[in-house]
Amino acid sequence: MAHNLIASLPICNSTRVLVPSKDLISLVPSRSGIPRPIQCMLTSEISDSPNIFRRSANYQPSIWHYDYIQSLKNEYVGESYTRQINKLMGQVRMMLHKVMDPLEQLELIDILQRLGLSYHFEEEIKRIIECLYNMNDHGGDTWKMDNSYATALKFRLLRQHGYAVSQEVFNNFKDERGNFKACLCEDTKGMLSLYEASFLSIEGENILDKARDFSAKHLDEYVKQNKDKNLSAIVSHALEIPLHWRMLRLEARWFIDIYRRREDMNPILLELAKLDFNIVQATHQEDLKQVSRRMLTKVNALITTIDDVYDVYGTLDELELFTNAVERWDVNAMDQLPDYMKICFLALHNSVNEMAFDTLKEQGFHIVRYLKKSDELERGDIPKSIQCYMNETGATKEDAREYIRCLISETWKKMNEEQALSSPFNQTFFETAMNLARMAQCMYQHGEYGHGIGDRETKDRILSLLIKPIH
């Protein structure tokens, strides 16, 4: 698979390499989790003999070819669309200024966030959130006193925007024994709101831990009963991954389809969401075209290929010769390498030298030794977290998975706490850090091959996010 990544990139002005007509390389990425066999050979000669056992995952060629990316066209550019979106944004600003009911304000902000539109209205949202927070100090919070849906929604949005809100706001929904009241289960919308709010917790907040367990249990039962298809789909989506952990742009794409089916759908919000998504997608496509032309993209694909060679495909003797060739940084060292390694080495050698030449010419820095040093890594299969826990404790695979899920949850609590504390870092920094965690969660949501296999969920997500506009 990784070998195909290089083949899909544009050829630079460096030495051309003829790829053998025979498919000499079939790679399994390090995500496979299969231990690499060590094969000792009796001579220093390396052969391309078909008798050498090499593993293969039978990856298909990448669909993201350079020519395909460069051919992408999007109609959602130009002044006509700019005028349309500005008109719709003006109408939404009027909504934000006119709505006065606290719950309606919260719901409007929540919808704008989930539709991917809130970045257009940051000042208006900030003003409303601050007013809602100040209600706590002036006794104006009675509107949500017995409403679990409203209480949880306000809690989630305030914490999300950096306000300190106590978990004790949920004590009103507990019985005399300290358990959440059974009657809350009758309100599925409230249960879902409580569930989503619980993921804004920090370490040591037992009330929110109980809220998560309580709501998740009853939401799971609701899905099994399947009383309402649309609501069941939303609940299932939340139980799979909570809103706080999801990639925002992918979530916006999903929620636009959900929102258009709602009885209370506002056509202005829906139209703005679709238009904004398509305009942003057009911008992303142009960014993608630019990125795919850069040397860095080629180097990233090359690193993936070499990582696969070290992890799976190469024999021990081949890897020692390749490492030696990189350390010497001498094209003459290629003579001892098998053909597939000659391709990798020459591509690495030419790419690094070209980057170093451009840097020296444009900025006056000689960086070959630093770039070369970064590639001098002796690699091997990387143990996976689940495998490590199973080996260390003797746990079953399912128990190990549950343990890793708990670690992920605890890590999110730490990030939530850092965001709530006084810190020298601004909100943009925290959002970037959280988005990295969201990206990892999304990439490996359906297993360890989220990166290595291009024809499953990852492909569909990329298509919906970067390629296909909303109609």
TrEMBL record:
Superkingdom classification of source: Eukaryota
The species this protein was found in: Fagus sylvatica (Beechnut)
Keyword Transmembrane tagged: no
PANTHER family on file: OS04G0344100 PROTEIN-RELATED, TERPENE SYNTHASE 10
Gene3D superfamilies, alphabetized: Farnesyl Diphosphate Synthase, Terpene synthase, N-terminal domain
Record-annotated Terpene synthase metal-binding domain positions: 285-373, 374-414
Cofactor: Mg(2+)
Name of the protein in its database record: Terpene synthase N-terminal domain-containing protein
Terpene synthase N-terminal domain residues: 63-239
GO biological process entries: diterpenoid biosynthetic process
